[in-house]
Structure formats: C-alpha cells, structure tokens
Amino acid sequence: MSRTPLRPLARILKARARGENPDAIEAENRARRHEAMADKQRQRAEGRLLVLGLAFFCAFGVIGMRMGTLASSVPEEPRASAVGNPIIGQRSDIVDRNGRILATNLQTHSLYAHPRDMIDPANAAKKLAEIFPELDEAELLKDFQGERRFLWIRRQISPEQMQAVHDIGSPGLLFGPREMRLYPNGPVAAHILGGASYGREGVASAEVIGVAGVERQFDSYLRDPANEGAPLQLSLDLTVQAAAEQVLAGGMSIMNAKGAASVLMDIHTGEIVSMVSLPDFDPNNRPRVLTTGDQSDSPLFNRAVQGVYELGSVFKIFTTAQAMDLGLVNANTMIDTQGPLTWGRFRIRDFHDYGPELSTTDVIVESSNIGTARIAMQIGAERQRAFLGSLGFLEPTPLEMVEAPTGRPLLPPNWSEISTMTISYGHGLSSSPVHLAAGYASLLNGGTRVTPTLLRQTTTEQGPRVVSEAVSAASRSMLRQVVSRGTASFGDVPGYEVGGKTGTADKPRAAGGGYYDDKVISTFASIFPANDPQYVLIVTLDEPSENSGAEPRRTAGWTAVPIAAEMIRRTAPLLGLRPQVDRPQQVGVTLTSN
C-alpha cells in the first residue's frame, strides 16, 4: 500500500521558491490523511452495525416463529430426554372385570449413600438401624468406612421413613424418586397377579418388572408406553374373589386340610371369575422361593394351576357322557356292578355294595367304580384318550400365566385296558383343578369346547363340539341327582339347583410307590343352576380330615361339598343370580253363607 508523503519534495521546492511556508503543506496533507482515515473507520462501523442488526432481526424472527409454533400446537408436559436406552418406570394398572384396581403404581423414594460425603458415619449407621430394624448397624458402619463410593440403603421407603432419615442430617444420605408396584388388596388374587420387582435401576428411576403370574406374562404390555397407560383388564371379579378366599380359608381350617384350591368359571366363555390357592401370600412382600424340600409346600405354589392330582370320581361323568354320545348306553341302561371286578392282579371295588346292577344314572349317583370301569371297557383306550384330549386333559393349562405350562397332566406311559378302567373313575391320570373346570364347562354347557382364560372377554366364540346337546342335558340331570339324592347331598343350596360330582382319591406316596391309607385329595366339581348352567365351581382339598365324629371322615361328601355349598351361597348373589323360589300354589277359597 502506497502512502502520500506529508512533505513532497516537488511542492516544498516550489513553495520555497515562492517564499511560502513548507509547514503549511505538511499540515494540509496531514489533515487530508486524518479525514481519509476517519471516513474508513466510519464505513467499517456502519458495516458492523448492519451485520449486528441483521443478527438481531434473525434471532427475533426465530423466536417469533417458535412462539407461534408453540401457541398453535397441542399442550403437553415436557419430557426429559437422555442418550441411550432410558429406564422405563411407568407401568400400567391391572383391574378386574368391573374396573376395580388389583395392581397399581405408587410414587415413593429410594435411599442411597455416598460414604465419602459423610461427616459422622457411626451416628448415621446407628440412626439408620433404628429406623430400619432389618439393617445391621455394624455392617452399615463397615460399608460407610470402606472404599465404596456408592451404597444402596433401601430401594423404597415410606414418607415417614424419609422424614426420619432427613432428620439425621447427614449429607451423605440421599434420596431418589422411585415408582413401586402396589397391590392394595393384599393377598387377594395373589397367585394370579404374581408380583413385581426391580430390574434396571438408577438413583433417579427404576424399571419395574413382573416376576410371576400375569405380571410376568403380560410384562411387555404393561411396560409398553404405546399403550398410553391403558390398564390390563382381567376376568376376575374382586368381590367374588375375596368372598371365595374367605370361605375356602375357613373351610380349609375346619377340615384340617394341608392346602386348598378353587376355580369358579363362566361355563360359556371360559372366563375365570375366581381362582384361589391356599396357603397364599402378600405380593407386596413376596416370599422367597424354597430351595429345599417339596415346592408344593411353598405358599408361592399355585395349586389351582400347577397342582396336578388324581382327582377321583369327578371323572366318572366323562365316561358316561362319552358312552352315551357313542350310543353304547343311555341314562337308563343297566350296568353290571357285581364285584370285585378283576383284571389280572388288579381288583376294582366299590365303596359300598350296590347290588348286581345299577342304571347308568345310578352309577353316577352312587359313584360306582365297577360300573364306570365296565362302561369304559366298552369305550376302549383309543376312544377314551381322544375324548379326554378333546376336553383338554392331555395338554398343559392354556391360562395366561407363566406358571401355566408347568401344569402338565401326568399320563400313563402305556394307555392299556387297565389304565382305561382306572382313568374312567379318576385314577391313573393326574390333572389340575383348572383342567377339570374346563372339562366340566365343555361337557355341560351344551357340549362345546371351552378354553379357560384370565382376560375379560367381550364376545363369546363357540368352540368345537365334544358331545351332543342331548348328552350334555342328560349329564346335567345326572349331576343334579347326585346332589338331590346321592353322595353330594350337603351341596344342595336352596334356590340355585346345584349339580355336581364328588371325588376322593388316595394320595400317591412321594417315594416308594403306592398310596397313603390316610391321606386323600377330595374334590367337588359342581355347576349351578343345573337347569340352565352359568358357572362351574371346583373345590379341592389336600389331605382334609373332618374330625367331629368318632372317626375321621375324609371323603369329598363330608369335606369339599359343604365348602362348595357355602361358596355358592355367598357368591351366587354377587354374580347376579337370583334364587329360584318355589312359590306354593294358591288354594281356592269359596265363600258360602252360614
């Protein structure tokens, strides 16, 4: 860059020649230079102001556009975003068929520690042990004084416990927000719900996951944000479930039973309205799984689904129904009941001597093993197996529970003729109470297959036919007569026309083979009302003993039947069934004069 000199030589020489002052030339050139510099600085400042003005204009334009977008959009709560896979804390509720809460969520807090931030670890350990008695003061102090930088104290605490910990005043004790699973009804429907626990967890949130029951079966649904918190609706009726549990628990205590189970099912849809297994537990404080001994002794064991038993004479109605459907017998066909019935080294006997013969109906009413076995011999092994398979007795329980596949029926390794005979009256094949409920529903609802379910059904889909409507009606009549004049006379509930069949099966020994002489599984399978059945009820007792008489009575007629009758008496009104009262005929009165 060239610059004009302040004292150019040519102008200086001319000025000296004319006698002028050369300093004026320098002053003039200096003034021009300063003026040019000022113009340049002004132009530069004007450019900067223009750029700054454009920047402010763009910023205000963006802010205005954003404000307009927010004003025109649907309002919603802001959500925090994080890099990676976030912990999903929200979990949908579980409700009964009427929308009443069975499982929900509760906002609480967790308690954790930063030991290096503690001022007085000994005092903190002492105070925490006083607030939480299950904690060990010495262990806490050891952890606080060790090398650990982070330590969980409690995964969830109550507001009162939170305030007590806050009053300790230790800067190393911190709280984190936490969502916990709450079962407001306690042990009611515990085996169905199962329970929940924590999966991935951090100080700010935790992942609630199902560990058993429907909580685990539908875990992905309950945790899916796409469902927008829609609850999972079960087929259970909370009121009926609570009443059934109360009655069964009282009956189990009176009958000195080791365990008990009941299933109440809609005979047309397969919806399970109530399912009870005792002993039970509180899913809010789920016990640990047994690591030794018999798992069936654990309160976690679901006897209604996982318990497979030889259920005894309740199977006899399947034998007579199949024989009637095949045209081999009818309700009045006389059956040879002369005993004992010998097959090789096996002998089949009846509980009482019923004489040389009984009608098919009386074989069911009197519960004759010999009569049922002779009918089964006419049916044959292949046809018997196929028929029981059509009722679902050869496959695991299809319920929507993770435990359901473990309820697999125990079948004879060789379905021989003797197996056919013993299975006809409930020995040699083990199944669960849910299997039995589905079988009775399929046989007695008009003869169409029913699949049990724990989900609320909005429509009724008719399954494949297993027997004719006439055979189904004849079977219902037989079961009604069992209650009115047979082995289940204690099961009659005025107004509800109960029909059913008793079953008492000796328990097999856990080791060494054979059966116990004084331990039985007693079962009563019933329907009500028998003239237009709406529900199936199964009540099963494990090792019952009714001891009010001189000798213990263990048969189902003395143990399971009275409990089922009381359960029907309590639950039928809750199910909306009105008792059918026989009104006496009015006697005509004619007035005459004296």
Secondary-structure blueprint:
Layout: H1 9-18, H2 22-72, E1 94-95, E2 101-113, H3 121-131, H4 137-144, E3 151-157, H5 159-168, E4 173-182, H6 190-193, E5 195-201, E6 206-212, H7 213-217, H8 219-223, E7 232-233, H9 238-254, E8 259-266, E9 272-278, H10 316-325, E10 334-336, E11 341-343, E12 346-348, E13 357-359, H11 360-366, H12 369-379, H13 381-390, H14 417-424, H15 433-444, H16 469-485, E14 499-508, E15 515-528, E16 535-542, H17 560-571
Parallel strand pairs: 1-7
Antiparallel strand pairs: 1-2, 2-3, 2-4, 5-6, 8-9, 8-16, 10-13, 11-12, 14-15, 15-16
Helix pairs in contact: 3-4, 3-5, 9-17, 10-12, 10-16, 11-16, 12-14
